[in-house]
């Protein structure tokens, strides 16, 4: 099924009862928790909101979010064809979020179509996520090496200084992972990484960047069909041999976005470690996975999910959702729901794993292990190489990227001090996070390529 393209503009009619108040305000960017609390007081677990001019049900109750995610009665669909206002042409063609719902990848499929693509993702990701697989071990070593390279570049010229850890570390690192997993030939991958950056930052050349990216992914898929390698496109083709090049390109285009959520998790964990001495102490005892879980619970990077549509009239949180109405599930608000948050023992050594940061039910995250692993290595290397990481702004003044879906820092300004001597390779048999091996592949570490030149350009004057 293909979602319908943009329809001619007609004034939107509310599909949710008035009053629907705008969700994405300055208050929301600065402090979403406060907005959630106010909406919850006014409307309860499910609020009618206006999302950039489009009426949507905003679901904030933990039980309600979980119930829709689990979709036990099969009453919810993610397919935009089920969106009544969209089908009836009541969504403006220039609605800024429309492209998100038109990408037509597995995330927006249902039934057999979704299951087949999900199975393909599961087997294609396994070599990268299964810790015993050589591919996973090589990837982990590459992440550690890229992390060290990025730290070396931002610290060029001195052992102390200032840096923006979002732009200079957390965001490029997962994109380098994407480059590696996609199996581009040397050089080509960097062009693609730069385009992905433009796309994620929605810069002036966003539209052309997307076209170039789709073309690059199609070309990559065709090359991998001819000459398979040890990479994600080849594994996806092997798992679903009838996948078309267009379908494959759409699936591959998901990867950079998913890895950008990982970048946001890295930033959020760094803030938590830098501002909380107990958490920093726990890092040295190897409790990094617990720190990541705690941060995913407190500040989930995928804060709100793309819509589900009611297939039939359904009651949710005391509201009646009409067939074809969209609901936006707020993971962040669900985690703040007093019925859930109030039952958590925040002093426990292990925080609850019953949170929804990785989704739940038929669309739950397939890359959780990978995202957690990359984050653990990134944070481990950073705090190993830097003896001081101090936020350059109070934590409550850090700038957030305005976004309806993600909770990500726009920048993460820090003051740092490098550790006296770079750590040497530790010959531990099964390290919790890998050390970067010595550079055995010089070609893998371009120093004058456009990407590294760009990264050098981000260095802060002392
Ligand atoms: C911190 C980083 C990440 C977070 C917080 C995250 C979270 C999530 C969540 C909440 C969903 C469910 C979306 C929904 O139900 O509407 C999801 C879906 C998904 N995630 Fe992740 N994810 C992350 C990274 C990744 C990575 C790195 C990969 C793969 C390389 C990945 C692969 C997927 C896939 C394939 C789906 C779609 C599953 C489906 O629709 O059947 N994720 N993710």
Mean of all residue-level pLDDT scores: 86
- Proportion of residues in helical segments: 40-55%
Total helix count? Answer: 20
CATH class of the domain at 1-100 and 303-356: Alpha Beta
- How many strands, which pairing sense, and closed or not: the largest β-sheet? 6 strands, mixed
Global morphology: globular
State the separation between the terminal residues, measured CA to CA.
Answer: 55 Å
Global Rg: 22 Å
Strand content: 5-15%
CATH architecture of the domain at 1-100 and 303-356: 2-Layer Sandwich
Number of strands: 11
Strand ordering within the main sheet: 1-2-3-9-6-4
Class computed from helices, strands and strand pairing: alpha+beta
CATH topology of the domain at 1-100 and 303-356: Uridine Diphospho-n-acetylenolpyruvylglucosamine Reductase, domain 2
Write the layout of secondary structure elements.
Blueprint: E1 21-22, H1 26-30, H2 32-43, E2 46-51, E3 54-59, H3 62-70, E4 76-77, H4 84-87, H5 98-101, H6 111-129, H7 134-154, E5 160-164, H8 165-170, H9 172-182, H10 188-200, H11 206-226, H12 232-239, H13 245-252, H14 254-275, H15 277-284, H16 288-298, E6 308-310, E7 314-316, E8 319-321, E9 326-329, H17 331-336, H18 338-341, H19 368-385, E10 386-391, E11 413-418, H20 450-457
Parallel strand pairs: 1-2, 3-9
Antiparallel strand pairs: 2-3, 4-6, 5-11, 6-9, 7-8, 10-11
Helix pairs in contact: 6-12, 7-9, 7-19, 9-10, 9-14, 10-11, 11-13, 14-15, 14-16, 14-19
Keywords: Heme, Iron, Metal-binding, Monooxygenase, Oxidoreductase
Pfam families: p450
Protein name: Cytochrome
């Amino acid at each position: 099924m293909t979602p319908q393209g943009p329809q001619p503009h007609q004034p939107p009619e509310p599909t949710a009862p008035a009053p629907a108040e705008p969700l994405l305000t300055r208050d929301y960017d600065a402090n979403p928790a406060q907005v959630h609390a106010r909406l919850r007081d006014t409307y309860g677990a499910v609020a009618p909101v206006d999302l950039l001019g489009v009426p949507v049900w905003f679901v904030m109750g933990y039980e309600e979010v979980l119930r829709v995610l689990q979709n036990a009665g099969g009453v919810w669909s993610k397919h935009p064809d089920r969106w009544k206002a969209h089908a009836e042409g009541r969504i403006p063609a220039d609605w800024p979020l429309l492209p998100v719902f038109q990408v037509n990848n597995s995330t927006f499929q249902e039934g057999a179509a979704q299951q087949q693509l999900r199975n393909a993702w599961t087997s294609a990701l396994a070599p990268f996520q299964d810790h015993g697989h050589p591919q996973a071990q090589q990837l982990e070593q590459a992440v550690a090496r890229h992390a060290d390279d990025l730290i070396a570049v931002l610290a060029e010229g001195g052992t102390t200084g200032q840096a923006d850890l979002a732009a200079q570390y957390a965001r490029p690192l997962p994109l380098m992972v994407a480059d590696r997993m996609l199996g581009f030939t040397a050089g080509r991958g960097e062009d693609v990484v730069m385009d992905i950056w433009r796309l994620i930052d929605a810069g002036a050349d966003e539209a052309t960047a997307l076209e170039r990216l789709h073309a690059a992914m199609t070309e990559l898929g065709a090359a991998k069909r001819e000459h398979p390698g040890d990479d994600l496109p080849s594994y996806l083709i092997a798992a679903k041999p009838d996948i078309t090049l267009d379908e494959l390109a759409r699936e591959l285009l998901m990867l950079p976005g998913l890895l950008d959520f990982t970048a946001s998790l890295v930033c959020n964990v760094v803030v938590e470690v830098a501002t909380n001495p107990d958490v920093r102490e726990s890092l040295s005892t190897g409790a990094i996975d617990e720190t990541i879980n705690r941060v995913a619970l407190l500040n989930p990077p995928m804060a709100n999910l793309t819509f589900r549509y009611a297939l039939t009239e359904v009651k949710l949180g005391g509201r009646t959702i009409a067939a074809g109405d969209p609901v936006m599930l707020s993971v962040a608000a669900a985690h703040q729901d007093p019925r859930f948050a109030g039952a958590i023992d925040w002093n426990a050594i292990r925080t609850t794993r019953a949170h929804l940061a990785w989704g739940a039910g038929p669309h739950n995250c397939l890359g959780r292990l990978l995202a957690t692993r990359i984050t653990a290595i990134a944070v481990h290397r950073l705090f190993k190489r830097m003896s001081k990481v101090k936020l350059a702004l109070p934590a409550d003044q850090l700038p957030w990227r305005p976004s309806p879906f993600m909770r990500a820092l726009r920048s993460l300004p820090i003051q740092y001090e490098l550790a006296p001597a770079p750590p040497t390779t530790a010959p531990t048999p099964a390290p919790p996070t890998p050390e970067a091996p010595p550079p055995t592949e010089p070609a893998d570490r371009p120093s004058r390529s456009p990407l590294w030149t760009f990264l050098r350009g981000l260095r802060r004057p002392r």
